[in-house]
Write a structure and sequence with these properties.
The structure is a homodimer of 112-residue chains. By secondary structure, chain A is α+β, with helices and mostly antiparallel strands. Chain A has one domain: Arc Repressor Mutant, subunit A, CATH 1.10.10.10. In chain A, 59% of the residues lie in helices and 12% in strands. A three-stranded antiparallel β-sheet of chain A has the order 1-3-2. In chain A, strand 2 and strand 3 form a beta hairpin. The longest helix of chain A has 13 residues. The radius of gyration of chain A is 13 Å and the shape is globular. The relative contact order of chain A is 0.19. The first copy, chain A, binds a DNA duplex (30 and 30 nucleotides) through helix 4.
DNA sequence: TACATATATACGAATATACGCAAATAAATA
DNA sequence: TATTTATTTGCGTATATTCGTATATATGTA
């Protein structure tokens, strides 16, 4: 249960919830998240560090950028994120993030 | 999104998660929860107060006892609890609570 | 090498959280 | 009314969380 409680602690911050929902759609580097979420870089970076520390995301440097990937192996946690995403129309902030994500034209270069 | 984040904040404490999972099965009074969860009464009471303050449970006095009911109208929140319950075998603490709940023989008297 | 860009981190301030213990309140009963 | 049982609450303590700002680190490029 501890891991599940830890997961909920992670989700109990709006910034981290938004990050996880975005990474559910696609891997993103820090500056892409800053732009999409309209948040400062240290703020995003700090929350990503927490997410990485508990293993819910993983990072991969590609040149100048560090890309973050959702890393949920747990089926319960995965289903929780899916439930939120499939009800995104009920959460304006999340919906707006996803909209900016979809409308984004300039992406940092992925190697793979 | 705020309400959802608030919900996760509630779930990010093991005691409250256990309470919600129990109340998902049946309404319970404070002393029944104390016995099932093997926790002190002030501890349970304080967490119930938080849950009531944010509206996730409601209370109803019946004589000497105050019974608490799960009060989740939100479909996303409901589904999250359902997901946890239907995977309870993966969470020993929750499973043990439910087991003690099922084996319980003496109940405080319900009026309705 | 010098500089720009991307990312992480240190630090201090403000705030929140959980807990144990003791005491207060409320209802039931002798 | 006095007592017991059920529940809540006040208080002090320890700890955790978030944020902004400034700075450090790492990589790419001129």
């Amino acid at each position: 249960m501890d891991k599940l409680v830890e997961f909920f602690k992670v989700l109990s911050d709006g910034t981290r919830l938004r990050i996880l929902v975005l990474l559910f759609h696609k891997e993103l580097c820090v500056c892409e998240m800053c732009e999409i979420m309209e948040e400062t870089q240290p703020k995003i970076s700090r929350h990503l560090a927490k997410l990485r520390d508990v293993g819910f995301v993983r990072d991969e440097r590609q040149g100048q950028w560090i890309f973050y990937y959702l890393n949920l192996d747990d089926i319960v946690m995965k289903r929780i994120i899916e439930t939120i995403v499939s009800n995104k129309e009920r959460y304006p902030v999340l919906q707006k993030d996803i909209q900016r994500f979809c409308l984004k034209t300039k992406w940092c270069e992925r190697k793979n």
